[in-house]
Amino acid sequence: MRKHLLALGVAAVLSPSLLAQKIGVINTMSGAEAPIGENITNGIKLAEEDLKKKGFNLHLVWEDDTGKPQISMSAMEKLATRDNVTGVVGPYTSACSNAVAKLAEKYKVPLLIPAAAKEEITRLGLKHVFRMNAPADKYASSLIDAALSLGKPKSIAFVYENTDFGTSTSKTAKDYAARKGLQVLGDVAYPKGSADYRSSLAQIKSKNPDLVFMVSYVADAILLMRQSKEVGLQPQAFLGAGAGFTTTEFAREKAISEGVISCTQWTDDVNWPGAKDFGARYKAKFGKEPTYHAACAYASMVIMAETARNAGGDRAKTRDGLKSGKWNGIMGEVQFADYDGFNNQNNHTMLVQQIIAGNYETILPAPFATKKPVFPFPKWK
Amino acid sequence: MAVFMQSFLSGILIGGVYALIGIGLTLIFGVMRIINFGHGDILMVGMYLTYVLFTWLHIDPFVSVLITFPLMFLFGGFLQKVFINRVLHAVAQNQILLTIGLGLVMSNTAMLIFTSDYKILTTSYSSSTLQVGGGVTVSTPLLISFAITAAVTAALYWFLLKTDTGQAIRATAQDREAAQLMGINVKRMSILAFGLGSALAGTAGALISPTYYIFPQVGGGFTLKAFVITVLGGMGSVVGATLGGILIGITESLSAVYISSGWKDVVVFVLFLLVLLFRPSGLMGKSRT
Question: What pLDDT, on the 0 to 100 scale, is given for residue A351?
């Protein structure tokens, strides 16, 4: 008992809240990826505000990597050796995160990646690299699992952009579909920006698959769905992985987007603690809806700051703190676990959503559902 | 069979628009012997014009052709008078550099004004279709744009064959010096030809806007396609460009189904090379020696 009291006393004297938490941020704030990077910046700014209100003595060091891995790496070198930060939150893109992860390991600086999707980043066995968001394979598996739980599909066809993003996402999806016993009936990689996908879609239609899985960006997503309607492609479900199927522009195209199933890391109508409040405050402060990037960045910064404070600014203790800790916040339960070949990866639950009456509604997992799913896909009018 | 018919039909419909782009390029080449490498960018200007007319003034993209055509004609005439006429007798490289430069100025100006975001035009009929029978469907906007293409092409044929001005343009294309000796104002014909070529490209831009998306760099791909169509049909031949456009449309569509959609451009270029090997002057071209 006396020992405990003593420990308590020492802890009170060296109260970590008196020390400043110096944390680095690497993000894409200029260049082509900047519009999405901005969401991360906003998320972190909101976290900083909240933490300061809670009495944190937070000192953030911002670095812009312009979306280029080599600049991201020099930013990491600077943060690790000159600024002596306790930990780093960022970078945004997969390419930058992949490059910076190895440096973080070299300098033994805890790195918390908020929103990069490339699977390999947390598969390299790096001890100091943690990731908040679910990696790319989760997109495929949660969509296919959703379709399997809604009905009894037996076959699937894939349509995807023939870029790194399209091929890697659909490859994981194909493997997963095969493991689940789905027959792959079509496999179409299209060159980005073709005006006419009708012939490929008509070919898929002739094989009559139960599911159609698409990976595309915004503009192509709209074209693909328009032309699917034209040729009368009528599967039990359209599964849209990737950026194009989760935008408001896409949802606005009601004639073709209604009923399309997609997935996301976060929305503000989940019942995770603080999510709704975060959404409302974000909208009031920045004048737009928060994306999942913003939520991931917010949660990452809060966790990094809290862990750094508890560790008294020590890098090794911060790393151990991240590894052993457990949190519950706007991203739901967060824990950096080792599973399926991943290290320090938060096994985040993806939310499956469907466009119902022009809005994205969460349909799965059941506890978060806001609307009943529509299945099979409604007949084209 | 339904798959074949479906892709054949959409190939023809898309090909119609390609033809319109090709005719514009071939007209300019025929009269001036200048390959307009900014042709796709002129098409892009036509697309943005349609976009602006639609979003700000709510003019239907197909109706806006009535505004786009004359405006783009004036734009093309202006380009010819101010820039192209000055290099008519310069070496070919300089002409090419000038048209590429003009194209770059256009696409970068569009980027400054509209940013590089993709824009999509959504009309009430953007996603509507027509049943043809046998499980084959056709996109309504694509069908309308094909009809307009056909009308514009027919009007152009009539203009070139029957009117005095049209004949003067053809005379200039056949032999510039002889035409000049016959009292034809060839500089004026050049302005007319470039204006017409631009108006056709702009119209094509307006016609594909409801079914495609718009961004500042959209022109590059179309320049290349127009070039292939023009050479395939025979440089300077309007009939050749019409045929070439439809041929390319069908080839793309069928090869996407029966080979792979990633390889369709390869098929188009192999076809292009074969035509050049066996008919160096193009399908309808006359060799000029």
Answer: 93
Q: What is the length of chain A?
A: 381
Q: What is the pTM of this model?
A: 0.78
- pLDDT confidence bin for A5, thresholds 50/70/90: low
User: Within 13 Å and on the Cβ side, how many CA atoms surround A181?
Assistant: 4
A229 touches chain B (CB under 8 A): yes
**Would you say residue A179 has pLDDT above 50?**
yes
Is pLDDT at A248 greater than 80 in this prediction?
A: no
B217 at A interface, C-beta within 8 A: no
Q: Do B262 and A196 touch (CB under 8 A)?
A: no
Separation in Å, CA of B137 to nearest CA in chain A: 6
Domain membership of residue A376 (yes or no) is: no
Residue A354 three-state SS:
strand
Q: What are the residue ranges in chain B where pLDDT is below 70? A: 286-289
| A256: nearest CB among B127, B212, B254 | B127
Chain A residues in contact with B265 by the CB 8 A cut-off are 191
Q: Which of A185, A187, A194, A198 to mutate to test the interface with B (most CBs of B within 10 A)?
A: A198
The pLDDT score that the predictor gives to residue B287 is 54
Q: Does A366 touch chain B (CB under 8 A)?
A: no
The domain total for chain A is 2
A237-263 average pLDDT score: 87
Chain B partners within 8 Å of A252 (Cβ): 122
pLDDT at A3: 58
pLDDT of residue A124: 93
pLDDT tens for each residue of B173-232: 888 899 999 999 999 999 999 999 999 999 999 999 988 889 888 898 899 999 999 989
Residues A159 and A216 grouped into a single domain: yes
CATH of the domain at B35: 1.10.3470
> Does A232 contact B137 at a Cβ distance shorter than 8 Å?
yes
Whose tokens are 């945004």? That residue is A92
| Phi, psi of A372, deg, nearest 5 | -75, 135
Which residues of chain A from 125 to 164 reach within 8 Å of chain B, CB to CB? 162
88-147 in chain B: CB under 8 A from chain A: 118, 120, 122, 126-129, 135, 137-139
What percent of chain A is predicted at pLDDT more than 90?
Answer: 65
Asked, for residue A380, whether it belongs to a domain, the answer is no
Q: Confirm whether A9 is domain-assigned.
A: yes
pLDDT digits (tens, 9 = 90+) for B139-159: 888 899 999 999 999 999 999
Distance of CA A201 to the CA centre of its chain: 29
ipTM rounded to 2 decimals: 0.78
Residues A163 and A281 in one domain: no
